[in-house]
Amino acid sequence: MGGEGRAPAFEYAYGPPATPRLQGIYRRVRDADLLRRLPEVQAIDGMFALPRRVRYVTAECGEFGAFYRPDQTQVVLCYETLHTLYERGLEQQRALGQDEGYALRYTRANVRFIVLHETGHALVQLLDLPVTGRQEDAMDQLAAILMLRFAGLDETPHQVVGNLDMAANWMLSRSTGAYNLHAYADEHALGEQRYFNLQCLIYGTDPEGFAGMVDAGDLTAARAAGCARETRRASRAWVRLLLPHLAPGYEAYEDEAVRYLERSS
């Protein structure tokens, strides 16, 4: 997007890893230009009047992870994360009897959610957005809302929800059920809590269409009762926070946002 009169566009870079086993992942990610081709990131590239560019990079980190470096305004996705997600995708592919492309779809869906979560941290810092409560929970909310709003043009609503379901599955897969004081005190919610928070946001977009989630045990009836309100409240909050920061040339989004706020009030 970018262009004259627009906000600084995002930048993308792929750092070569030193570890041999990660070389193949690096080449595939670089050759596919993965970061630039994430639909939601592409959609918001240049959308906001940022004081500095955000740089998206892939790198060897020495462990599983993704994070935002505020001093460098840099969103980092680790090669170890891509490896681990793909392995989990293969496990799910075998367990669920999915087709051979499932592991890649699982990896990409989770990468989209993870990168958007870290992008949220960048927006909070660069736009000085107020966040009350736990920031990590708010970033999960924003990632889900962006995936719901800015999916690929060729993706059906069913595929969009499927992507969020795979992100929720990953959150649950990392939970051990055996927690200590450090886990309870962590800035992130427990994996089970993040899982149900995300399922609630999914359910809240269409309670009738997703009524089966309660029967399947993906959501309790008590939580589901308030999910439509919870989803609407989170969406309205993020629209209000981001609306004043739209870059020149995005007036159509401003008009759409105003209409949404009027409809959902």
Secondary structure elements and their pairing?
Layout: E1 11-14, H1 23-32, H2 39-44, E2 55-59, E3 66-69, E4 74-78, H3 79-96, H4 102-126, H5 135-149, H6 157-173, H7 181-185, H8 191-205, H9 212-215, H10 221-224, H11 227-242, H12 251-263
Parallel strand pairs: 1-2, 2-4
Antiparallel strand pairs: 3-4
Structural overview:
With 265 residues, this protein is of the alpha/beta class. It has one domain (11-263). The chain is 56% helix and 7% strand. The chain is built from 12 helices and 4 strands, in the order E-H-H-E-E-E-H-H-H-H-H-H-H-H-H-H. The chain has helices at residues 23-32, 39-44, 79-96, 102-126, 135-149, 157-173, 181-185, 191-205, 212-215, 221-224, 227-242, 251-263; strands at 11-14, 55-59, 66-69, 74-78. A 4-stranded mixed beta sheet has the order 1-2-4-3. Helix 5 (135-149) packs parallel to helix 8 and helix 8 crosses helix 11 (227-242). Residues 1-5 have low confidence and may be disordered. This is Metallopeptidase. It comes from Luteimonas lutimaris. InterPro entries: DUF4344. Pfam families: DUF4344.
Care to give the gist of this entry?
The chain has 265 residues and is α/β, with parallel strands linked by helices. The protein contains 12 helices and 4 strands, in the order E-H-H-E-E-E-H-H-H-H-H-H-H-H-H-H. Helices cover 56% and strands 7% of the residues.
